[in-house]
Amino acid sequence: MRGIYSSVTVVLPTYNEEGSIGKLMSAIIGRYPGISIIVADDGSTDRTKSVVMSLARAHRRIRFLDRSSMKRRKGLTGSVIDGIMESGTKFAIVMDADMQHPFDRIGDISEKLDSGNDIAVAVRKSVEGWQMYRKLISKALITLGYAELVLLGRERSSDIFSGYFGIRRRFFKNIYMKNRGRFVGEGYKILFDILKCIRKGDAKIAEVPYAFASRKEGRSKAGARQAIALIRSFLS
Ligand SMILES: Nc1nc2c(ncn2[C@@H]2O[C@H](COP(=O)(O)OP(=O)(O)OP(=O)(O)O)[C@@H](O)[C@H]2O)c(=O)[nH]1
Ligand SMILES: [Mg+2]
């Protein structure tokens, strides 16, 4: 099994995740020998950096990417792009750092990539802890986004906004280099930006089901600004 995981980098975007980042990284390293991790941080003001750095001293496959020292604009999509581009492995797996994405799906995602898929999307089969209004807004946006992909003849998956997916790095790099202007760096939905750049039939996409858990630590950063960024994604 070590074979597959030494080809995988897990990209974890963070902003103030001191409550979960250490536990998540230790769990990933313990379960998937040989795997690499890049934490793409946007200048967290809590202890996120020191937690990651102390683990990085013991594990050479852990890296902390300090985006604030790179004078980049803040943003989840931009952080994920930097993380994937900086990873040196054949595959990258993107997931939230707040434990809402169960890390035990990393194995299935890695296997789907290793067996020849360009993208393996972890698809939400259930969502825990969201209020009704958030479910409704989410459903409306998903319907709009899906319709756009169908109308434009683009690739899709049954969870087009999933923040948990794996991708072949060269495949991503190729798409990103040709379509930089269509990625909304401040946005939250990089998978949608990727899908809208792939003509239907030009990628092999697999799915892995999972249950989206409620946040147990830290604070949500999702809000109106991210919804506006998504509208920009629809239009770019
Ligand atoms: N680097 C970086 N990471 C971010 C930024 N905004 C959010 N994140 C991280 O992206 C992941 C997802 O953000 P969340 O706030 O949990 O969004 P969400 O899961 O849709 O919302 P909740 O269900 O309310 O937690 C977490 O790991 C955050 O720390 C950002 O601007 N920059
Ligand atoms: Mg979250």
Report on the structure:
Helix 2 (21-31) runs parallel beside helix 3 (48-58). The termini are far apart. The protein is built from nine helices and seven strands. It has one domain (2-235): Spore Coat Polysaccharide Biosynthesis Protein SpsA, Chain A, CATH 3.90.550.10. The model has no long low-confidence stretch (mean pLDDT 93). A seven-stranded mixed beta sheet has the order 3-2-1-4-6-5-7, with helices on both faces. It is an alpha/beta fold. Bound molecules: guanosine-5'-triphosphate (GTP) and magnesium ion (MG). Residues 96, 98, 100, 215, 220 line the site of magnesium ion.
Q: Could you name the ranges where pLDDT drops below 50 across 5 or more consecutive residues?
A: none
For this structure, the CATH topology is Spore Coat Polysaccharide Biosynthesis Protein SpsA, Chain A
Shape: globular
Order of helices and strands: HEHEHEHEHEHEHHEH
Across the major sheet, the strand order is 3-2-1-4-6-5-7
Tags for this model:
236 residues; alpha/beta; Spore Coat Polysaccharide Biosynthesis Protein SpsA, Chain A; seven-stranded mixed sheet; 7 strands; 40% helix; globular; binds guanosine-5'-triphosphate
Chain-wise SSE layout:
Elements: H1 2-5, E1 8-14, H2 21-31, E2 36-41, H3 48-58, E3 62-66, H4 76-86, E4 91-94, H5 106-114, E5 119-127, H6 132-151, E6 165-168, H7 169-179, H8 190-195, E7 205-212, H9 224-235
This protein binds guanosine-5'-triphosphate (GTP) and magnesium ion.
Write a brief caption for the model:
The chain is of the alpha/beta class and 236 residues long. 40% of the residues lie in helices and 18% in strands. It binds guanosine-5'-triphosphate (GTP) and magnesium ion.
